[in-house]
Design a protein that fits this description.
This protein is an alpha+beta fold. The protein is about 15% helix and about 40% strand. Strands 1, 2, 3, 4, 5, 6, 7, 8, 9, 10 and 11 form an 11-stranded mixed beta sheet that branches. α2 packs antiparallel against α3. Bound molecules: calcium ion (CA).
Length: about 210
């Protein structure tokens, strides 16, 4: 009689350790779309999460993630966050957290209700799924390399329409992109080389127009 609960606990622990939610960013811009932010362009950043195993099992879908912070470094504060859309937030407001005085996004959170409950809008069970979109415009276009980090929080996923759920361990969530003083060519390369030195001279050779 006393052995049964121990066996159940061991099985639950093994299942939980196998579930991973990998956060990642995609970067584009309002100009040529190459993700390098040149004069006149704004950055278009999206935060995604992919689930292993997939979230779209019967009854699947994000139950909750966060609240978490997304922190910027390397010049993220020297710009303007013009929009911050939260694609999965059932409640009042649709913005992704709130901005502190350095443009960090604070207390972002996502959640929805099980599809069978009949309210809360369309039930989102894509894999991967985009959860946040940002538009950011630099205050100036001198070279800098900017990093965003959402801290890779764990994510809770529904496993049935009754609202039962399981936790996925978070991973990833960091991206780096560049602001440059010209969209391409000699001026950008010179500025890039001056900033990062030797490592970039190698990159110039490998990316030559041969
Ligand atoms: Ca660009």
């Amino acid at each position: 009689m006393r052995a049964a609960p121990i066996i159940i606990l061991a099985a639950t622990t093994a299942a939980a350790s196998a579930q991973v939610a990998t956060w990642y960013w995609t970067v584009s811009d309002t100009g040529n779309g190459d993700g390098v932010i040149g004069p006149g362009e704004s950055a278009l950043l999206s935060l995604w999460v992919a689930f292993d195993p997939r979230q779209d099992q019967p009854g699947g879908g994000v139950a909750a993630a966060g609240p978490y912070d997304t922190l910027g470094e390397g010049g993220w504060a020297s710009g303007t966050v013009e929009s911050r859309v939260n694609h999965l937030f059932f409640g009042s407001g649709n913005e992704a957290g709130f901005l502190d005085d350095e443009n960090n996004l604070r207390e972002v959170q996502h959640y929805q209700y099980p599809s069978s409950w009949g309210y809360g809008g369309p039930f989102e069970d894509q894999n991967p799924i985009v959860l946040v979109s940002l538009r950011w415009t630099p205050d100036f276009y001198s070279f800098r390399s900017i990093t965003l980090d959402n801290g890779a929080p764990s994510v809770v996923i529904y496993v049935d329409d009754a609202g039962n759920h399981v936790s996925y361990t978070g991973a990833g969530g960091i991206v780096t992109f560049n602001v440059v003083p010209a969209p391409g060519g000699a001026a950008a390369l010179l500025a890039f080389g001056a900033f990062t030195g030797r490592r970039v001279r190698g990159a110039r050779v490998s990316s030559g127009r041969r």
